[in-house]
Write a structure and sequence with these properties.
Blueprint lengths: L3 H18 L5 H6 L1 H14 L2 H14 L4 H19 L5 H7 L5 H5 L1
């Protein structure tokens, strides 16, 4: 059974996370499953968006997490991994694949 308050906050997190990072989450599952909620919280905290962080704190209060420090550690590791990924330069092959000209529709024109 879904708590209406946690579901309400989960839908706000869904909308904001999609706007900020393009990630799509399951709001119903977020309000039901604590493991999934921890994963989404890590993703949300890694964005560093102030509104999203406010919603996450509100969600933590409603969902009553017992391991806040564990979630914060996971968020720190996720942020470190994201920073490392951002340092990787794309290869010429990556750039070629990103171009439209090799796609089927682009090739027809």
């Amino acid at each position: 059974m879904v708590n209406t308050e946690s579901f309400s906050i989960a839908t706000l997190i869904y909308a904001r996370l999609r706007r900020v990072s393009g990630r799509v989450i399951d709001a119903i599952y977020l309000s039901e499953n604590s493991d999934y909620a921890e994963h989404v919280i890590v993703l949300a905290e890694a964005t560093r968006d102030p509104e999203l962080l406010r919603l996450v704190e509100k969600f933590k209060d409603v969902f009553e997490f017992s391991s806040d420090s564990n979630i914060s550690q996971k968020a720190g590791l996720q942020l470190k991994n994201n920073d490392e990924l951002m340092k990787v330069e794309p290869t010429e092959d990556d750039i070629y694949r990103a171009q439209v000209s090799h796609h089927y529709i682009g090739a027809l024109r």
